[in-house]
Amino acid sequence: MKVTVRGVRSVEIEMSQPERAAEFYGTVWNLTEVERENGSIWFRGTGPYHHILAIHPARNGAAVRRLTFDAADRDVVQALHKAVATSGCPCEAPHDIDAPGGGYGFGFVDGEGRNLAIVCDVRDHAGHADAPDRPRKIAHVNLNAAQLEKTNDFLVDVLGFRRVDHSGPLHFFHCDNPDHSSIVTCTATTPTLNHVSFEMPDLESVMRGGGRMRDNGYPIEWGPGRHGSGNNVFCYFAGPEEFPIEYTAEVLQIDDTYEFHGPDYWKWPPGRLDRWGITPPHTARWKRIQDMVRFTPGQHRL
Ligand SMILES: [Fe+2]
Question: How far does residue 96's CA lie from ligand 1's centre (Å)?
């Protein structure tokens, strides 16, 4: 069994107006605030993870400060630390983490300057259960890569992901959980964020979430629809400060027997953009914001 992570545990973002963003993620996006400290606010989903989103005050507009991967235990953390250090990335030694949720792990910078971290032993919530209309967890993060091959190779050779599909410009990466993919990459001119996807408990919650977003002044930028690769349903939105976010559900569950398919397989008839054939094309705004949010440089130490 290859050593890898168990998925994206949390995303830390920077906002110019963190309080306004926190109001949105707590009352419209339907996460639950768990901690606040020095102007930063942490939110959980309905799953066990201590938090899945952290909002920090921005120094320079909306940005992603860090993606944190979950690891099964300290042996996995140590093994992945060895792999990351050997790859030559700037990297700190694993240590006990003095931040909300605690845990044990390390931060590092990948080859395109993204701050990443791998942690285990976090103080997760004993009480967790699906709730209608409330996100469980981060389903996946879609990254724009200026050096796509380098980023893809790092995910596979160093972090132990398996590339399970290639559809159009998108490459899908599976790790140690049944979800079809936890990281998606695509080509861009700069290494920006494409979007962060939050998993809802069911299709109904994605649809009702779309309505709730519209009611609050956040129209659907793409969707609703059902993707080909991954088979998940989707609705995409521009959150506060035009941060690109997705509600998804019904993500295909796979195991080692899943067969890779390339772009020739994942093709729609002309004019069709999803399995159902109902979604209109994405908006010009979505096109703009899915290659807009940069990663904060030099913040890899936990
Ligand atoms: Fe997505």
Answer: 32
Tell me the two tokens of residue 91. Answer: 């990297």
* pLDDT range class, residue 299, cuts 50, 70, 90: confident
Q: How far does the centroid of ligand 1 lie from the alpha carbon of residue 232, in Å?
A: 9
Distance 17 CA to ligand 1 centre (A): 25
CATH code of 137-289, in short, is: 3.10.180.10
Total-model pTM = 0.98
Q: Which two three-digit tokens encode residue 286?
A: 């979505």
Q: 8-126 has which fold? A: 2,3-Dihydroxybiphenyl 1,2-Dioxygenase; domain 1 (3.10.180)
Distance between CA atoms of 83 and 94, rounded to whole angstroms? 13
Distance 40 CA to ligand 1 centre (A): 26
- Domains of the chain: which residue ranges? 8-126, 137-289
**Whole-number Cα distances in Å, 108 to 94, 101, 155, 195, 270:** 10, 19, 13, 21, 43
